[in-house]
């Protein structure tokens, strides 16, 4: 995907949308000093160009019974396209996995997993992940405490 040219006003809009996703167009326009119609046109352009990928609510995992978070590093036994495709397709079916990243280094993938508890994690690991064809090694780390979690992108790095 090609990078989109963003000016300072676009960046200010994106900061506001990331922090105040439920703001009305009028509120958003006031926060970035635009007319509501100009603000709406910019937001629509950012959506059309794929800069704004979507909207959604952030849920508190523990409040809905997902009390255990783990990061699981996975090494595949084979690295051919068929083996990779098979693993990627399996990951898509596992609700416990909220993120999966292909990595450089000694492990091939990093999974972010949310489960109810250690028993649920054990079921996920034994019944799904270790049964997936092509998984050679798994290394899990459980989150004890989250020190920082801000899901918005660091737009200040793009300052113009």
Describe, in short, the structure shown.
The chain is an alpha+beta fold and 160 residues long. The protein is built from 5 helices and 4 strands. Helix 2 packs across helix 3.
Q: Can you walk me through this structure?
A:
By secondary structure, the protein is α+β, with helices and mostly antiparallel strands. The protein has two domains: 6-47, Winged helix-like DNA-binding domain superfamily/Winged helix DNA-binding domain (Arc Repressor Mutant, subunit A); 59-140, Lrp/AsnC effector binding domain/regulation of amino acid metabolism (RAM) domain (Alpha-Beta Plaits). Helices cover 36% and strands 19% of the residues. The protein contains five helices and four strands; from the N terminus they run H-H-H-E-H-E-E-H-E. A four-stranded antiparallel sheet has the order 2-3-1-4. Helix 2 packs across helix 3 (36-48). The protein is elongated, with a radius of gyration of 20 Å. The relative contact order is 0.17. InterPro entries: ArsR-like_HTH, AsnC-type_HTH_dom, Dimeric_a/b-barrel, Tscrpt_reg_AsnC-like, Tscrpt_reg_AsnC/Lrp_C, Tscrpt_reg_HTH_AsnC-type_CS, WH-like_DNA-bd_sf, WH_DNA-bd_sf. This is AsnC family transcriptional regulator. It comes from Stenotrophomonas terrae.
């Amino acid at each position: 995907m090609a990078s989109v040219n963003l000016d300072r006003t676009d960046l200010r809009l994106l900061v506001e949308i990331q922090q105040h996703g439920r703001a009305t167009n009028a509120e958003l326009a006031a926060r970035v000093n635009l007319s509501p119609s100009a603000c709406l046109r910019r937001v629509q352009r950012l959506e059309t160009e794929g800069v704004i990928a979507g909207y959604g609510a952030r849920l508190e995992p523990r409040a809905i019974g997902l009390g255990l978070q783990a990061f699981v590093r996975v090494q595949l036994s084979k690295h051919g396209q068929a083996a990779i495709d098979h693993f990627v397709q399996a990951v898509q079916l596992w609700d416990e996995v909220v993120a999966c990243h292909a990595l450089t280094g000694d492990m091939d993938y990093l999974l972010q997993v949310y489960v109810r508890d250690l028993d649920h994690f054990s079921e996920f690991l034994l019944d799904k992940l270790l049964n997936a064809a092509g998984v050679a090694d798994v290394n899990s780390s459980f989150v004890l405490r989250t020190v920082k979690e801000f899901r918005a992108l660091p737009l200040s790095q793009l300052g113009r």
